[in-house]
Design a protein that fits this description.
Length: 89
């Protein structure tokens, strides 16, 4: 789960893909929420990470997450967001 979808997040996510992570296993959020298939206004870089998911917010995307990569602004994740994380990835 990536918080942030700027140049650093896209480059890092692409590196994860080169390491073997399936693109469809990466959920990425920008300042408008989850990058999902069908969302309007995505540039070509974000479109590569658009996935089929019902999650629309950062908090929803974090539910059941195994990994969190924070490449966004400070303080974006609250204690409430962390409650749904998996205890043992």
């Amino acid at each position: 789960m990536f918080a942030g979808a700027g140049a650093a997040a896209i480059a890092t996510a692409e590196h994860y893909v080169r390491l073997g992570v399936l693109r469809e296993h990466i959920i990425m959020c920008d300042h408008k929420g989850v990058i999902y298939k069908g969302r309007e206004g995505l540039d070509e870089f974000k479109q590569r990470f658009a996935i089929d998911t019902k999650a629309r917010t950062l908090a929803e995307a974090l539910q059941g997450a195994d990994v969190f990569v924070g490449l966004s602004v400070a303080g974006i994740v609250t204690a409430t967001c962390c409650r749904g994380w998996r205890r043992s990835p």
